[in-house]
Batch of 4 targets.
Target 1
Amino acid sequence: MSGIHDYWLFLLTGVLLNLTPGQDTLFIIGRSLTGGLRAGIAAACGIAVGSLGHTLAAALGLSLLLATSLVAFTVVKLLGALYLLYLGTRLLFARSAPAAAAAAVSAATPRAAFLQGIFTNLLNPKVALFFLAFLPQFVAVHSEARTLALLSLGATFITTGLLWCLVLAFAAARLQQFFVRNPNLRTLIDRAVGALFIGLGVRLAVSR
């Protein structure tokens, strides 16, 4: 492939990295448990769109700003952390009555999950730095098609990641149906997912 070297090594490494649990993985599982399969798929697609944004930023050199500016990195990091804390707090303090279970499901609409997936991914500067550090390693230094090579590598990584995220969404959604049939347990999972999102937000806020 023009401008790319060791493509199969990149593909293998990318798949292994996608299989490693991270913030995006936990977010998709959480959204699938609270909103069902459609919300989980939407969240996975939103994260893919966010990753596309990071790929474009890396190809255009914008990610260098986050790598070289402490202020820019901190601002983006704190915005992402606050957003995750907001989502977690909403779930943690949602109504606990069994009658509220159906309302909680409808609240996590596919459209909302899609947008949340985009924002949680885009507002994580560590993802931006990952794309900036990982993709260029497989681009030929003297190639005249470096930008196209970066975009191709990014598209490959996003595709394999999306496929894995869809598997996670399907698996978690099967559990969601069980919780819908058991409202009291559904309240418990809402609280657990809310605490998970808050934990992710705190971890992002204190990351360096």
Target 2
Amino acid sequence: MKQRKWFLAMIAFLLAALVLDACSFSVKVLSTPTVSPPTEPSLSPTATPTSVAQTAVFPSVTPTLISIRADTIYMLEVFESFELGDVVRSVAFTLDGTILAAAGGNTDDFAIHLWEVASGQSLGTLDGHTSIVWGVAFSPDGQMLASVSSDKTAKVWDWRNGTLLKSLDFPGEVSSVSFSPDGQTLAVGGVDEPQNQIQNAAIWTFSVGSWKPLLKFPEYLNITAMAYSPDGRWLVGGGTSRNVQVWQASDGASLFTFNHAHQVSKIAISPDSSTVAAATCETTVNDLCMEGGVWLWDLRTGRLIQKLKEFPDGVESVAFSVDGSSLIAASRDGTLRVYATSDYQPRFEATPGGGIEALALSPDGGLLSTGGTNGEVQLWKIVYHP
């Protein structure tokens, strides 16, 4: 009898423990069903900027997103758009993908615009440049935003508080900017000594925080394209000279020179630091680009891998997907095309309207932003339709 009572008591205890344990779990419902088992990383809750410009921001959770990859790209759709009011020349996401920055201008509106991605709420603007803003980049820790302009300055902002931390002056316009992967170095590319016809472009690097100059990487004409390799070993840059140089980031030692038929607008480096994609023009007639393309280079050997052609106009921007399975390219006529890197065959194409001058992928791979001549910034994501 005692054994029976003891057995019943144990059963009751175990049932109670199971009920309590079940209460400690929460079920996360994805906003978009996945096409494969739900292994995608989610965007973390939005950090709350206390005062960006004059707008107070409250936290909002960004829904879980499906990564933009070769096997999901056919479901890519525009889901949100923002008006900039002038030509969009650069876009960038914070590391967690919660904040989007866009800038550009042509005759006016040289401000940097900020939005919260989850809500679409404007966070105001960063004002200070007096001419076209060619590039913006967030620091890896998300604390700073750097911008470069035709006004011959690079500016570093505390974007949350809307304050200018540092303004760096240069001999000519500066048109490309990047933080090193470890966040310790800021690189700025542009025109150096416009009157010097021999070597009149450069990339300058600075120590983040002290803003003391570190190295100068010489080039020709203007540095419109620049990127650090994801492993931090190489700094790649060039553009107007039709060359793209590969330097050792630590000391400026030259590794390769990639020669192109025409100017290079932007470059991207694959996540494994093996491949450089250069956005360029294939054919010109009377200085007008009749066919755009993307040239692919092996960063380890300097060998030209392949040319991707048949864009109706010059290709202005390129980006690799976070997993390296896709290459995204956008041209001046408004063509957005995505290739699978396994065979470099096109898997997706769209013409959302207006020439595309800039694109960026969120670091988690769930969002794509494009912007261009119609003054509109568009946000794309993978949308599953069962």
Target 3
Amino acid sequence: MSGATATERLRERVSARLRGTQPGGDPLAVLLHGVPPEHAAALRRQVPERLARAAVLVPIVERPEGLTVLLTLRASHLKHHAGQISFPGGRMEAHDLGPWEAALRETEEEIGLAREFVSLVGYLSDHMVPSGFHITPAVGFVRPGFELRLDSTEVEEVFEVPLEFILDPRHHLPRDREFKGFTIITYEIPYEGRHIWGATAQMLVNLARLLGEP
């Protein structure tokens, strides 16, 4: 890509690394990254065989000044993950044709992002969260010009973080967390007074690792 801008080069890298990826993978792999094998095996035995399926959209907005990732702040009264920073998405329904359709539907319902502005890039590895969900993250490029209509019962606000900031490993702060009697390594990504943590941070770190591989 001779003469390409930094934004164009980053977009091409995202496309190249995610092109052809399919939903699936070990949902515990990201959560247990860095955990000693004997502890990982013990944790796997404690996880229920059947987990509720969910899908989220990892929206990469194609701003003229650079790529950004759109995130939501969940409403403080929700039963699960209240007040946390997350991707738009939620539980898969029987009528959804797959994770991509579920992610688009939930995104439209939560923040009003019309699906015609979103194009599928690929998928990150499935992820399990301690609340009992098996999540498939679908990555999509979002064309500017969209308008948002937030469902205040689920989302308090939305904001964007530069993708370059997220990809910088210096911003991935490791944190120890207790999970079913064992210590696992999670991450926190602070940005302008906000703290991205939990499954959202894990998925972003996973994206950064994928894009950073030679």
Target 4
Amino acid sequence: MIEELRTLSEMQKLDTQLMEHERKRAQAPKRLAELEQELLKTKDKIAREKEIIEELDKERRKKEKELDVEKERIKKVQSKLYEIKTNKEYQAVLKETESAQAANDKTEEEIILVLERIEELRKDYEAATAYLKKRDKEVEAEKKELDKEMGSLDSIVADLKKQRDALLKTLSGDAKARYKTLIEKRSGLAVVNVRNGVCLGCYMNIPPQLFIQVTKNAQLITCPSCNRIFCYTEEA
């Protein structure tokens, strides 16, 4: 294999590693944002549930107060029974009492329903609060791990770039320009292998005679379809 082709092949390996590490590095801020959003949604849910519980509890107290007032009113109405002199008056008081009692029964049912709803929400609120506490610790641990990974990736990327730049300096002007152009225009893949007469960059067939020349690695040959540089290696 000619030295320049070997260098190009090594540079491609370094660039492939660089792209993978930089992809991982770029994902870290996105992951951090996802974690923050997850915690925020849980906190919002807990806050909403707390507000609803407080509103329902306020409604319960209001209904209980109204019920106490109505019960007191029934007692007063019933006390009039001892002062009644006619059957008509008796029937009127009795009707008023029954009506008030029916209203009270309905209010008591409403209070029970509110209490059940409060109990249901409190269970969910307590579960969500416990989950948030647990998840908060997990997220904090993941953030620390991401920070550690980012530091490691920064170091790896810097080292890979250093190696790549050193190799780049050894290339001729034409090879250097061609490689840079292909890296930019061909999604980071400038140097490719050939398998059974097929370019592994664009997966197009190449002429048999060209394939034979490529397998010798004696000169810089590019794909007729995608212009990527061929560097042949036998299948393991």
